[in-house]
Design goal:
Helix content: 25-40%
CATH topology of the largest domain: Trna Endonuclease, Chain: A, domain 1
Number of domains: 2
Largest sheet: 6 strands, mixed
Order of helices and strands: EEHEEHEEHHEEEHEE
Radius of gyration: 17 Å
Distance between the termini: 60 Å
CATH architecture of the largest domain: 3-Layer(aba) Sandwich
Structural class: alpha+beta
Shape: globular
Strand order of the largest sheet: 3-4-2-1-5-6
C-alpha cells in the first residue's frame, strides 16, 4: 500500500501556507485550512496539529521544522499558544471542525459534527483558558455577549496542567 504524501507547507509570518494538491484534497475532505488567493492558509494551531498527525511537513526557507521547533516558534508568537493548541487538538480529535474566530472576537468557532464551514453556521464560539488563570465578571460578561450577539453558544475550554481539557457551555436563560 502506498503511503499518502504529506502536505509540504511554508512557514510565513503568523501563518503556514501551501498550494500542493495534498493541501487542496485535505481542505475539500476535512476543511483544514482556509482557501485564500489560490493557496491554503493554516493558522499555527492547525499546522502543528497536522504535523503531529503526520500529514504535514513545514519548512522555513529550506529547513524542515520539527514539531518541537515549530511549537517553540509558535509559543514566542502567541503567548497563549499551548492552551489554544490543546483545545484545538481535543475538539478536532472529538470529530468537530474548529476554525479561528478573530472576526467574532473569540479564539475559535466550532461546527457541529458532520457540518462543514459554509454549509451551516458554527454552533459555538470557544475561549481556551488555563485552569490557574482567572476571569473577571466583566471579561466573562464580554465573552457571553460576543456569543449572544453572534447567535452562537459560548464554550469555555479549561486546560489543566496535564493538558487535559474540560468544557463548560454557557447559555442565556430568560426566566
Amino acid at each position: 500500500m502506498q503511503e499518502k504524501k504529506k502536505i509540504k507547507a511554508i512557514f510565513v509570518g503568523e501563518i503556514v501556507t501551501s498550494n500542493t494538491q495534498e493541501a487542496f484534497e485535505l481542505y475539500e475532505k476535512s476543511r483544514f485550512g482556509e482557501l485564500v488567493d489560490g493557496k491554503i492558509h493554516y493558522p499555527l494551531v492547525e499546522a502543528l496539529y497536522l504535523m503531529e498527525k503526520g500529514k504535514m511537513e513545514v519548512y522555513e526557507g529550506r529547513k524542515k521544522l520539527t514539531p518541537e521547533k515549530f511549537l517553540e516558534k509558535a509559543k514566542k508568537m502567541e503567548p497563549n499558544f499551548w492552551h489554544r493548541f490543546r483545545v484545538f487538538s481535543d475538539i478536532r480529535n472529538r470529530g468537530y471542525i474548529i476554525k479561528t474566530a478573530l472576526k467574532f472576537g473569540a479564539d475559535f468557532r466550532v461546527y457541529g459534527r458532520g457540518v462543514k464551514p459554509g454549509e451551516k453556521h458554527a454552533k459555538w464560539i470557544l475561549f481556551p483558558v488555563h485552569e490557574t488563570s482567572g476571569l473577571t465578571w466583566y471579561e466573562f460578561a464580554a465573552k457571553t455577549r460576543v456569543a449572544h450577539s453572534t447567535k452562537k453558544r459560548l464554550l469555555i475550554g479549561i486546560v489543566d496542567n496535564e493538558g487535559d481539557v474540560t468544557y463548560y457551555e454557557i447559555k442565556w436563560l430568560k426566566p
